[in-house]
């Protein structure tokens, strides 16, 4: 089964959503586990063996949708090797670099869209895949 990532504006709404999700999945004979939340209150009724994050001093990170998440601070961590940023931008290097951005929640979309617009500009120059763009 895949991970589910959701959120709410307040604990009451989150608890209601949690109950609905548990009920819905139970109807299909699915058991939910690996629960994590940025609120201890939301995990209060979840059995310990079904929790991924326990709010103890040893817990700091969990992975959700393949991304490191710090529930206490409620932040995702993105990692990128800036040494891989090409000095010379070509169609090939630009496309390769952009395709390495892993962003299932879509938080980096403003950056990704600008990068794709840059690729479009390079493409419109009608140059070969491995020739440097004239507008680096």
Give a quick rundown of the structure.
The chain is mostly helical.
Radius of gyration: 21 Å
Poorly predicted residue ranges: none
Supply the helix-strand structural class: mainly alpha
The number of helical runs is 4
The N- to C-terminal Cα distance equals 44 Å
What is the N-to-C order of secondary-structure elements (H for helix, E for strand)?
A: HHEEEHH
Shape: elongated
Largest sheet at a glance?
A: 3 strands, antiparallel
Note the beta-strand portion: 5-15%
pLDDT average, as an integer?
87
Read across the widest sheet, the strand sequence of neighbours is 1-2-3
Protein name: DUF1758 domain-containing protein
Pfam families: Peptidase_A17
Tell me what the structure shows.
A hairpin with a 2-residue loop joins strand 1 (62-64) and strand 2. The chain has a 3-stranded antiparallel sheet, with no helix packed on it. Helix 3 (91-99) runs antiparallel to helix 4. The model has no long low-confidence stretch (mean pLDDT 87). It is elongated, with a radius of gyration of 21 Å. The longest helix has 17 residues, at 11-27. Helices cover 34% and strands 7% of the residues. It starts with 10 loop residues before the first helix and ends in a 12-residue tail after the last helix. With 136 residues, the chain is mainly alpha-helical. It is built from 4 helices and 3 strands, in the order ααβββαα. It comes from Trichonephila inaurata madagascariensis. This is DUF1758 domain-containing protein.
